[in-house]
């Protein structure tokens, strides 16, 4: 069966929802997210808007992912490591590959890899301030 590319907000919501269902069950990542996120419905909509903005460049995203991740790292005693970002990225790739194929799907992988690297470096940098 042929998969389609990511084309709509609904596609992104499906990706984000299925991805975070995996994250929440993951024994290493789950505690960070499950102890931090109180309203998952709102959070999934927020993340859908983030990825819609990132992939389609037509929606304005209001938020500060770096600030949010630094805060979570601080609240978890600076315990976020490259392992966490590696697991996160692998689950993202896995979910994309299960659901989609095409240029936008590949772009979602590239953007996630760049974002993960940036966030990890900035979290590490924030620890030294």
Describe the protein's architecture and organization.
The protein has 129 residues and is an all-alpha fold. It has one domain: Globin-like (Orthogonal Bundle), CATH 1.10.490.10. The protein contains 6 helices and no strands. Helix 5 packs antiparallel against helix 6.
Salient structural properties:
mainly alpha, 0% strand, 6 helices, 129 residues
Mean pLDDT: 93
Task: Give a short account of the largest sheet.
Answer: none
Task: Tally the structural domains.
Answer: 1
CATH fold category name = Globin-like
- Total of helices: 6
Principal-axis shape equals globular
N-end to C-end Cα span? 51 Å
Identify low-pLDDT runs. none
Summarize the entry for a quick read.
This protein has 129 residues and is an all-alpha fold. It is 72% helix and 0% strand.
